[in-house]
Amino acid sequence: MHLRDLTQFLGELSENNHRAWFVMNKPRYDILRAELLQVVMELIAGIVKFDPAVASCNPKKAMFRINRDMRFSRDQTPYKTSFSAAVTASGLKKPSQGGGPAYYFHIDANGKLLTAGGEYRPPMQRLREIRAHIVADPAGFGKILKDKTLNAHFGGIQQADKLIRLPKGFDAGVPHEEALKLKSFIAWREISVANVTPASLTGRLLEDFSASASLVKWLRN
């Protein structure tokens, strides 16, 4: 994938976020979109080696649309300024659709590459299920927290997004009490695209996804 061309396109889009500019530059977008599809296809083939459950994921459906949903947003710019994709066993990207845990990445207009594994802000019912799973399987979740590869790559599960108090229905003093306060169960990290070559992109992503596979699989179960 031509990363320099992609970040340049996204940077220009962020400064000209309107339909007229996008239509004029649609041929550039189409080329970059086709390159993203190729990357996602390679990623699915690579992820299958350590997580066979994603084998049926449709690469075209794994990619997020560049058009923003402006119906309930104050921000009325029509286009996202990032290219992103989420590989899931269900084939569904969005948590609100029941997508479940995902291997996710995006490249944005600031030249940042973010890779992640897990679930970001799942719906309330799903969040209750995850918390109940922690209580029911404290040993299994404990292994995730101690996973050396996960911790080395991401510093563990992100802790910033959490409640102040325990959620209703959960008692103090249970194992992994602090984890029950989390709103997201995800590990992620961000680096500069300048540190990645087009040839190394897929390998870099697969390395991170492999490091988060234990979390993704635990959440899926």
List the helices and strands and how they pair.
Elements: H1 3-15, H2 19-24, H3 26-47, H4 59-62, E1 82-87, E2 102-108, E3 112-119, H5 124-136, H6 138-145, H7 148-154, E4 185-192, H8 201-220
Antiparallel strand pairs: 1-2, 2-3, 3-4
Helix pairs in contact: 3-8, 7-8
How would you sum up this structure, described in words?
With 221 residues, this protein is of the alpha+beta class. The protein has one domain. 42% of the residues lie in helices and 13% in strands. Strand 2 and strand 3 (112-119) form a beta hairpin. Helix 3 (26-47) packs across helix 8 and helix 7 (148-154) packs across helix 8 (201-220). The longest helix has 22 residues, at 26-47. It starts with a helix and ends with a helix.
Binned, the helix content reads 40-55%
Q: How far apart lie the N and C ends?
A: 34 Å
What is the assembly state of the chains in this entry?
Answer: single chain
- How would a crystallographer describe the biggest sheet? 4 strands, antiparallel
Order of helices and strands: HHHHEEEHHHEH
Question: How many helices in DSSP terms?
Answer: 8
Instruction: Kindly estimate the percentage of residues that lie in beta strands according to DSSP.
Output: 5-15%
Low-confidence stretches: none
Strand order of the largest sheet: 1-2-3-4
Number of domains: 1
Global mean pLDDT: 94
Q: What structural class should be given to the helix and strand makeup?
A: alpha+beta
Q: How large, in whole angstroms, is the Cα Rg? A: 18 Å
**Any idea what the shape is?**
globular
E-strand count = 4
